[in-house]
Automatic annotation (TrEMBL):
It comes from Kouleothrix aurantiaca. The keyword Repeat does not apply. InterPro entries: HATPase_C_sf, HATPase_dom, His_kinase_dom, HisK_dim/P_dom, HisK_dim/P_sf, Sig_transdc_His_kin-like_C. The keyword Phosphoprotein applies. CDD domains: HATPase_EvgS-ArcB-TorS-like, HisKA. It is an enzyme of class 2 (transferase). Residues 13-233 form the Histidine kinase domain. This is histidine kinase.
């Protein structure tokens, strides 16, 4: 509908306009923290760190809104290539190392021997894995355990499990978890922050790959987020949706 398209265009335009000055703010804060303008007192470093953390949260929100806009406008085109999902899990562990070490989380990676590659969009499946692993670390208490597994399930599909022993989810929370802007109420919610869009975006990306994503959880005992993907994808066609210029 015309009204929906106008709304999407407006949100996309505003988000892009916000991202440009925010990128500049983040850059100058990083320079200040590195001492480019001279030594900083402990209090100054603390205040700048607060600015940096909140700027990062705002940037995450803007990027999520832009991603949702692309999904709604059917402007996500997947770039298929052979992807080693075991390597994706290992890379995610390295990418999130600072967060993992800060929470003193014990992360293990279990990759099935001779795991076949899949045909997928590396950027999108990496984004899904990073979201799930980051959530697992965030929604556990210090010293908790997170297990990452990659294997070919009995249906012949590649499956990824991200298991934690964190706060867990009630059956009612699990029903709403993949809805946009939904954030389950739990003891770590305010500390973690977030937009409530990450899992919705992850679900869209997995479904674009003809896959499935789900969660098994018990309140107070932890959660296992899983997704499975086919090993191959149908041939793309010339009339596939056009990629946005900044993708």
């Amino acid at each position: 509908m015309e009204a929906d398209r106008a709304k999407r265009d407006f949100i996309s335009s505003v988000s892009h306009e916000l991202r440009t000055p925010l990128t500049s703010i983040k850059g100058y804060v990083d320079l200040l923290l590195l001492g480019a303008a001279g030594p900083l007192a402990e209090g100054q470093q603390s205040f700048l760190s607060v600015v940096k953390n909140n700027a990062n949260r705002l940037m995450d929100l803007i990027n999520d809104i832009l991603e949702i806009g692309r999904i709604d406008a059917n402007k996500i085109q997947l770039n298929f290539e052979n992807v080693d999902m075991g390597a994706v899990l290992q890379d995610a562990q390295q990418t999130l190392r600072a967060e993992i070490e800060r929470k003193q989380t014990h992360v293990s990676v279990d990759i099935e021997p001779d795991l076949p590659p899949i045909v997928a969009d590396l950027r999108r499946v990496t984004q899904v894995v990073l979201n799930l692993v980051s959530n697992a670390v965030k929604y556990t208490y210090p010293g908790a355990t997170v297990h990452l597994r990659a294997f070919q399930n009995p249906a012949g599909l590649l499956q990824i499990d991200v298991e934690d022993n964190g706060v867990g989810l009630s059956p009612e929370q699990q029903q709403h978890l993949f809805r946009r802007f939904y954030r389950a109420d739990n003891p770590l919610r305010d500390e973690v922050g977030g937009t409530g869009l990450g899992l919705s975006i992850a679900k869209s990306f997995i479904e674009l790959h003809s896959g499935e994503i789900w969660v098994q959880s018990e309140l107070g005992k932890g959660s296992t987020f899983s997704f499975m993907l086919p090993l191959t994808q149908p041939e793309t066609t010339d009339d596939a949706p056009t990629r946005l210029a900044d993708e």
